[in-house]
């Protein structure tokens, strides 16, 4: 069936994964009317639900749309989903089930970096094409044969932020980072590239995922002489708390957030305190503000209109966009390969060139399973409760 491995390989996978075998074993061919199975594991509930919820809604919406238009290579798509609640251990359990029991052809998902990193060894061992929706650079560096991803990396976010800081004359900064997988990863990446931009980090604080007040850390930053701007790598509710505490302490230095908060949910949680915050994000959040000759505009305005028509005005986020790109890249690879056979799909993915998605133009290669350049990021500022595109020439 859909794994398209030999019986011996499949049974070895079942035994190794410790999952009950499906009633019928996979053969070497797939019937024309048999669905192509796309597996996914997402944080639809729990602290990362603001990531997983729009991702799942996007996948469901576009699977339905693709099926209404005739499917892929004449076959319908079937989405097989499990909710991890953001737990990497659950992600591993569900991916084992997707591979050995559900017999999926490809897997997209992993709302968080921790989930994606935890399951990558399974994708490589059992040779399943996988596109992650998470941010950590570690997902694609070093390159793993079967793993790709759609969001910009945390390193690219650091670079975009530091470019903007340098343009504004800020060379001495402080950081306050979440201790989760994403926050730790971006903290380390920013520390690594800061010297390249002439940025000196004068203070470097952290907070835990369950912390409800960051006043102590921010007070330490406020009392550090010379701090001209502050960067907060993190996602979830933590950055909103940081932003509120920041304004309560009346810290004058500009505050930067990461692409981990690139959804309207952050603005809602932070409220008026979010005014003036800057962050790098995909063009999707400012779709209508793009110039008419921007080649990305038709893609992001089209996705935004379709999503908001179904789920409500103002509900679009870059996270749903990552899911859109992941699904479409898999579908395009299957069409190019003329098959859903895993090796053929993987090879077609790796040779993808010129795909214009919500994150930017993707050009995969043997040595690059992200395929985006830093200029795919846009610098945004929150003004009057909404996103505004910052002019790249003026800062």
From TrEMBL:
Pfam families: Peripla_BP_6. GO terms for biological process: amino acid transport. PANTHER family: BLR7848 PROTEIN, LEUCINE-SPECIFIC-BINDING PROTEIN. It comes from Caenispirillum salinarum AK4. The keyword Transport applies. Residues 35-381 form the Leucine-binding protein domain. InterPro entries: BCAA_transport, Leu-bd, Leu_Ile_Val-bd, Peripla_BP_I, TAT_signal. Keywords: Amino-acid transport, Signal, Transport. It comes from the Bacteria. Residues 1-31 form the signal peptide. The lineage of its organism: Bacteria, Pseudomonadati, Pseudomonadota, Alphaproteobacteria, Rhodospirillales. Belongs to the leucine-binding protein family. This is Branched-chain amino acid ABC transporter, amino acid-binding protein.
């Amino acid at each position: 069936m859909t794994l398209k491995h030999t019986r011996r390989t499949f049974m070895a996978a079942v035994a190794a994964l410790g999952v009950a075998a499906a009633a019928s074993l996979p053969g070497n061919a797939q019937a024309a009317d048999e669905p192509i199975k796309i597996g996914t594991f997402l944080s639809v509930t729990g602290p990362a639900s603001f990531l997983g919820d729009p991702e799942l809604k996007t996948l469901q919406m576009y699977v339905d749309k693709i099926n209404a238009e005739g499917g892929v290579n004449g076959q319908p798509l079937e989405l097989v989903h499990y909710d991890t609640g953001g737990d990497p251990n659950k992600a591993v359990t569900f991916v084992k089930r997707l591979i050995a029991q559900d017999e999926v052809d490809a897997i997209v998902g992993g709302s968080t970096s921790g989930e994606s990193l935890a399951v990558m060894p399974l994708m490589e061992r059992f040779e399943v094409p996988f596109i992650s929706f998470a941010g950590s650079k570690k997902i694609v560096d070093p390159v793993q044969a079967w793993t790709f991803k759609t969001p910009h990396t945390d390193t690219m976010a650091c670079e975009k932020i530091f470019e903007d800081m340098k343009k504004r004359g800020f060379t001495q900064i402080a950081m306050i980072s979440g201790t989760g997988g994403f926050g730790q990863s971006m903290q380390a990446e920013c520390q690594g590239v800061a010297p390249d931009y002439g940025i000196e980090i004068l203070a470097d604080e952290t907070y835990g995922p369950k912390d409800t007040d960051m006043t102590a850390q921010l007070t330490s930053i406020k009392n550090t002489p010379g701090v001209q701007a502050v960067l907060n790598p993190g996602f979830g509710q933590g950055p909103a708390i940081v932003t509120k505490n920041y304004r309560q302490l009346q810290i004058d230095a500009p505050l930067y957030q990461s692409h981990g908060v690139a959804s309207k949910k952050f603005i809602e949680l932070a409220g008026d305190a979010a005014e003036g915050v800057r962050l790098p994000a995909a063009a999707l959040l400012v779709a209508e503000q793009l110039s008419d000759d921007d080649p990305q505009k038709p893609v992001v305005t089209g996705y935004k209109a379709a999503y908001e028509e179904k789920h409500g005005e103002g509900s679009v986020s870059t996270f749903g966009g990552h899911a859109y790109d992941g699904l479409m890249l898999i579908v395009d690879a299957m069409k190019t390969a003329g098959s859903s056979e895993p090796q053929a799909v993987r090879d077609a993915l790796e040779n993808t060139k010129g795909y214009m998605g919500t994150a930017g133009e993707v050009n995969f290669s043997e040595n690059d399973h992200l395929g985006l350049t830093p200029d795919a990021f846009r610098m945004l500022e929150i003004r009057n409760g909404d996103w505004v595109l910052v002019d790249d020439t003026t800062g």
